User: Fold these one by one.
Assistant:
Number 1:
Amino acid sequence: MRRSEAKLFTRREPTGHESRAVELCFRAGLIRQFGSGLYGFTLTGERLRQALIDRIENEMREVGAQRIRLPQLNYRGIWDESGRWESFGDEMFTLENRDGQQMCLAPSHEEGVVHLFEGLVRSYEDLPILCYQVGPKHRDDHARLGLLRTKEFTMKDAYSLHASEESLAESYQAIKDAYIRLFERLGIEFVISDADNSVMGGSASEEFVAPVETGTVKLLSCTEPDCRFGDTADSPRDDLTEKSPCPACGGELRGGQGIEIAHIFKLGTRYAESMGLSVDMADGSQQNVLMGSYGIGIERLLHTIVAQHADDDGCRWPGEGSDSIAPYTLSIVPLEYDDELAAVADALYEECDKAETLLFDDPEKNIGERFAESDLLGIPYKLVIGNTFRETGELELETRDGETEYIRRSEIQQLFD
Ligand SMILES: [Zn+2]
């Protein structure tokens, strides 16, 4: 993309937002606020949000999950059946349609999944089912810290349906492993904590929590690099302190704050029983369907990556190659965009993956401004066409972390592999 067409809307001046990560998202021109707890994503911001969704969907396909789509607007009926119209309480956005019927904007979709399969799934042979969707959730939460708690957010919510505990345990473990792979590939530091099921109900759940100084939950996390033990204030256990040995490996625990980035639940027959979803078993008996539910909050994941990896110059997007969600892979930065250097920059741009490249083609900017903007956006590589090129014909490749190497023209293509 040419910079003149990309419409970046970055800004140098601080916005004064209380959260450094959100401040950077504003300055990088990724998001716009629409009042308390509501955000829109700009052209650049949506590239990032969609890149995260793509990575998550890849992992879901790896474990054999298939995509579904459930309506955001629900009639009250299914929520009365599950009993959650009352238990969600003020957190649920409710409304009346023109015929006076009560409706809500779904804060969660367990009811929707049960309704989708009720009457379709009849036999144990129709199970297991593993499905997911990516879409908005609405919760009338007290808005907090930018993207961390909002009234509308994007969730990847997956669900599994089973005829036995063993089958549920298998899918639960498969999704847990998929989440571990995903967060490792995205370069996120995280631990896993047992958690309370609260309004979701069911038998067991675990939270994936990323240690972040400005996070919203209290967190004890193991300091051993290969141990993922964590313990939040939501955990059912209350016997641990910073002085306790890690229950998983005996290592040291560290106190701090964290951000919940994912939550996985074994729901058992909690929803099938109350809403009437059962299957015929081989011996002729009836079995209530067991369920699991697995969620990842997309915007808070983006916030977490910025919070864990940004430096004084701006955003950084970890992960190698295609695992990185950087909005562009490469900036082409000519010392000046005029005459000879502009012609060289244009010719190099033609050889690049244009969707992944940002060509600084604005003659008004100086090289310092171009560097600053590229770094603010966290673009991993800058191809500098300057004095070295004039003298020797070599291209200077600088990483986001300031390491420089000289490359030949024929090596550019490798950056996009
Ligand atoms: Zn440990």
Note: The chain has a mean pLDDT of 94.
Number 2:
Amino acid sequence: MNTRFKDANLRLSDFTNTILVVCPKCRKKATIRQSEKEGAILSCFECHYTSNKCISDEDRTDSITTDYWFGQELWLQAAFKNEVFWANNYEHLDYMKQYISSGLRERHKRAFFTLVEKLPGFIKSAKNRERLLKLIGKLETK
Ligand SMILES: [Zn+2]
């Protein structure tokens, strides 16, 4: 498989407009959106729970498997060996899928590290490709 991946020079911050998390009330899929006026808003379509928080750095949690503001578990995550594979939303998942499934990975000159360059080694490793794609397939239908 030699599909070519062109680094679109996207950063993780390009995939934070919507973050999918586990609803704190019903444990189903909830979304967090950011708005300048209201801060971060968590809302669940299942049980209609909503909550909002003003964005301040002190409130932010540092874990990679929870969101910044509410500390809720990310919806799209799965254990992979001793690591955790996670994505903020389906666009983010799809972008990593394109990267993982490609045989040739192109880079461009730019002034910062892009999302794919910062990915942990287990995601970049060609030997994990098949198992990762299977795992992504499962997350895509979650
Ligand atoms: Zn809910």
Note: The radius of gyration is 16 Å.
Number 3:
Amino acid sequence: MLALPTACRTRSAEPAGVDPARLGSIVQTLASDEYEGRAPGTRAETKTIDYLIGAFRALGLEPGGEGGSWTQAVALLRTQVGAPRTLDVSIGGHSRPLAQGEQVFITTVRNAPQIDVRAAPLVFVGYGVTAPERSWDDYKGVDLAGKIAVMLINDPDFHAAPGEPVAGEFGGRRMTYYGRWTYKFEEAARRGAIGALIVHDTDGVGYGWPTIIASGGESFDLAGRDPAGQLALRGWLAHEYAATLFRDAGLDLAALRVQARRADFRPVALNVTLTADMPVSVATTESHNVLAKLTGTARADETIMFGAHWDAYGIGAPDAAGRTVRAGANDDALGVAGILELARLFSAGPRPQRTLVFALWTAEERGLLGSTAYAEHPVYPLATTVANLTLDILQTAGPARDVMLVGEGQSDLEDDLARAAATQGRTVTPEALPERGLFYRADHFPLARQGVPVLLLMAMSGGADLVDGGRDAGNRWLEAYMRCYHQPCDRWSADWDLRGAAQDIELFRAIGRELANSQRWPAWRAGSEFEATREASRAARGH
Ligand SMILES: [Zn+2]
């Protein structure tokens, strides 16, 4: 299936476009039962990686990984909390039990055999946000040593009424990075807390309590982190329970919620302590990113990176149809197929001046871990990584008149996207549900945090305006897809029409080709959370 076309083609001619049939064929293979849902660290990983390396090799690419290899090792830590031996809160000296999974949901990513927190005071820290560029600091220097930070999900203006002073400072309904639970846990650890609990609210996080507890207490992180820099426990308080707990502590959560929308909010001690003694089983596994490259002809140390994730959810409980393999056909075997198509087309066409890197990440579904490992230990310096272009979930319902932009206002790569779309006679549509924070939930994001300008194509951000059936048909496709998201029914189907996905991948081909033959450095827009980080490495780009 990956054999190169034989018909009359010279190496310097621009090959024809992304081939929907090739995309489908690659997905059909990777999402077949043989690949067992591509879980990291399993025999399915070996099989998947062999396939991917074989494909890159057949396409004439160079190994792009560590030490001239095709891969980068990624050590993963898996933690599983067990049934609590003790889990309770104490209010004014009266202790009462806490129900794990009902009132609270506690996990950890610290490499230790148990969670052992004794009578740790709870401190409400509003939204738990430190945003110097917005002159915002919810912590106000509060001492959190030995304490548990309790905070709200999303960012300070998410629930603000129009006209409130804060409205719009954090993008209004649009979620900023500060709204993500990942950020909140990291920031609480930086502030010295031993634990952090987020008050769940379906609207604010974008999903209900059943999704919060669906992990069953299993968590993943990169292995080798310093336990001293990590929270002993992290988790969620169920909304109703949190309101009761605050009331029993003589506080009004609803009123504090409003106070937390102001920059002059100050942390409030709850006069409640929490004790948790829970067993944790810990294991490490070795996984791998796959990296290939085409070395540039003129400025080889400047790289354009294309990325997708090869992993999916492996084998799980049977669905209603008895299927156990969560094949991740769309998420993200289709993205992987897109990267392989880009590799094929660039390899067959004229070699660009800058180097092209094709990255297939592991453990995206475990928390963006493969791309995070790369961002912490880059094979190609991030300061001279021109852009990261990521594919994660494309629509399979045919050609579209538009393309969805995730993370509007972040970088001038969105101008590149609009230009490329215009040459296809298409327009750019901002994501329909920016409060979901999709911009912070794919593999481009760890690169963005390190300052690399990024662009993500993800069809989950709203229904496309399909040539056949318009926006309604696009929304129907998305609704149907969301029922299969992370489920066994995210499977390859002969009914897929991949012409729209091919169009989207062509956008990356056009943007990548232009960047790879220019001396331009795309930049973050003023006010982006990532602008300052990029700016700090300006000298490395010689401008
Ligand atoms: Zn994905």
Note: Confidence is low (pLDDT under 50) at residues 1-11.
